[in-house]
Design goal:
The structure is a homodimer. Chain A is of the alpha+beta class. Chain A contains three helices and seven strands, in the order βααββββββα.
């Protein structure tokens, strides 16, 4: 088992960063425009790519406002199924230190490495969105 | 020991991707404007950040045109010193599959996770540069 770890300092308060992770409206601003997400623990979220050629299906395992978001992935990509995605928010210098881990990867494959690069780009895209630079989502569909 | 792995498909030929990694002019377009780099095996490279508040000192361990670039880091950041940075280029569909590994990290620290996010952003920035979108370097100094 291996994991991906990312981290970035965002010049926005933890409640704003939380809204980018815990609401459908927020998630659509930086990840994929094709997002459907509940905002309650035990709810579901779906992230679609390439006109639904690939869809990541998530269960929302935990939501702790301004602090913590956890999803578990149940498909449809076989390498993502079984991974757990954890977001931790810590107030720092008037902004937020955002830490992300995707654990449960079975192997460090080519797809793992490509997803790692995209997560890095997404961390900066989320920062740009929350700091008012309006980058739009990575996947606009 | 742990390592960072990144990968991206670039719509540019391997010799163009190689020039972005093996020449000072190329490196300045996507990483840091404060780059000084030899273009021969055994030579040195320096990457400066925050007005030389931090400088990564590299030895150029291998250069295989259009295929392979290896650097070893000798400072000045204590977590980077001792890491080895390997770039592998493979022709694919008229472009290049670019694989990157930074091995030899002693631990998966906060700085490791922040560098991982920045490497992801840099992979996309290099792609943007090589595909003609002129993003400029991440650190413009």
């Amino acid at each position: 088992m291996t994991e991906l770890k990312h981290q970035i300092k965002i010049n926005a308060a933890p409640d704003k960063v939380y809204a980018a992770l815990a609401t459908e409206t927020g998630l659509k601003q930086w990840w994929t425009a094709d997002t459907r997400a509940d905002s309650k623990i035990g709810g579901d979220a779906e992230f679609g790519f390439d006109k639904r050629g690939m869809v990541f299906h998530m269960k929302i395992d935990n939501l702790d406002p301004a602090k913590h978001v956890v999803w578990s992935c149940h498909g449809d990509h076989p390498e993502w199924a079984g991974t757990v995605l954890t977001w931790d928010l810590t107030p720092q210098d008037g902004g937020t230190m955002l830490r992300f881990t995707q654990s449960g990867w079975k192997a460090a494959t080519d797809f793992y490495a490509m997803c790692n690069s995209t997560w890095g780009e997404l961390m900066y895209r989320m920062k740009d969105y929350l700091e008012g630079r309006e980058p739009g989502p990575h996947w606009k569909q």
